[in-house]
């Protein structure tokens, strides 16, 4: 049965908890969480990214997270919490659900880059 994007987002948001800036900071600083920017390179070139975030376009996420992939990034360790964000939170929700399905037990959705930056998360880049 076909599903709409909204149905997919609702399912993802039911699996991946949303966190605010304070909790995202705590996860990164106290639990060594991996912060992941899922936006594409053109978006990041325009705005920069949150300080310390790994940049993995949504299309490459599964390849970077899978230890059996030749594109694996060792920063993706299921023992580490992962905090994902994108432009508005939609890609982050879907990516978070995918990571959960891949065996990452602690995945959180920070939402969008600009709201996080406006709320005081430090940025780097342009």
Please give the structural blueprint.
Blueprint: H1 5-15, H2 21-31, E1 34-37, H3 41-47, E2 49-50, E3 54-55, H4 61-65, E4 82-86, H5 90-101, E5 107-112, H6 113-118, E6 123-124
Parallel strand pairs: 1-3, 1-4, 4-5
Antiparallel strand pairs: 2-6
Helix pairs in contact: 1-5
Organism: Paracoccus salipaludis
Pfam families: Rhodanese (PF00581)
Protein name: Rhodanese
Describe this structure in words.
With 126 residues, this protein is α/β, with parallel strands linked by helices. It has helices at 5-15, 21-31, 41-47, 61-65, 90-101, 113-118, and strands at residues 34-37, 49-50, 54-55, 82-86, 107-112, 123-124. The protein has one domain: 3-Layer(aba) Sandwich (Oxidized Rhodanese, domain 1), CATH 3.40.250.10. Helix 1 packs across helix 5 (90-101). It is globular. The mean pLDDT is 96.
């Amino acid at each position: 049965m076909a599903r709409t994007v909204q149905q997919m987002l609702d399912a993802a948001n039911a699996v991946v908890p949303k966190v605010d800036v304070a909790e995202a900071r705590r996860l990164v600083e106290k639990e060594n969480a991996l912060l992941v920017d899922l936006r594409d390179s053109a978006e990041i070139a325009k705005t920069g990214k949150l300080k310390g975030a790994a940049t993995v376009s949504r299309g490459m996420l599964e390849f970077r997270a899978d230890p059996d992939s030749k594109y694996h990034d060792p920063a993706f360790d299921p023992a580490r919490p992962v905090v994902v964000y994108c432009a508005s939170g939609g890609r982050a929700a879907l990516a978070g659900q995918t990571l959960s399905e891949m065996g990452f037990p602690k995945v959180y959705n920070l939402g969008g880059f600009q709201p996080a930056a406006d709320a005081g998360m430090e940025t780097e880049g342009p």
